[in-house]
Amino acid sequence: MVQLSLLWIGMGVLVGLLACAARLGPGKLPQYTNHKLLSLHSVPVPVIAMLCGGGMALAGGWLGVLLVGQFLATWMALWISIVAVVVGLWAIKKHLSCSPKVYM
Predict the structure, then answer these.
(1) Which of 20, 7, 22, 2 is nearest to 75 (CA)?
(2) Got the DSSP string for 18-85?
(3) Which of 8, 41, 76, 104 is 20 to 30 A away from residue 15, measured at CA?
(4) Is residue 69 part of a domain?
């Protein structure tokens, strides 16, 4: 199961990189923050996409093991990571188009 977990994480990271190559997310996040802590705006978009893809593929894989079994879990992990990355990057782009442009 460790090998499957690593496979699912690798698939999710690859999905995140492919989504960035397809330019599904915003091209560049603006460099502003309202506080000193690390915020979403200081992390590059490919890193966000890879983390989202890897995490959701791992969660989707384990959910697939519980629901449909070990052999179909990889396909479920793939589809859950694709949907999560596409929706996540769309939400980031939508959020940035609505947020005020405050530069410090």
Answers:
(1) 7
(2) HHHHTT-S-S------SSSS--GGGS-HHHHHHHHHHHHHHHHHHHHHHHT-TTTHHHHHHHHHHHHH
(3) 41
(4) yes
User: Helix or strand or coil: residue 5?
Assistant: helix
pTM, two decimal places: 0.76
Tokens at 92, concatenated? 């980031």
Q: Per the structure block, which two tokens stand in for 21? A: 């190559």
Domain tally for the chain? Answer: 1
pLDDT in tens, 64-102: 999 998 889 999 999 999 999 999 888 877 776 665 555
Cβ atoms < 10 Å from Cβ of 103? 6
Domain hosting 50: range is: 8-17+44-97
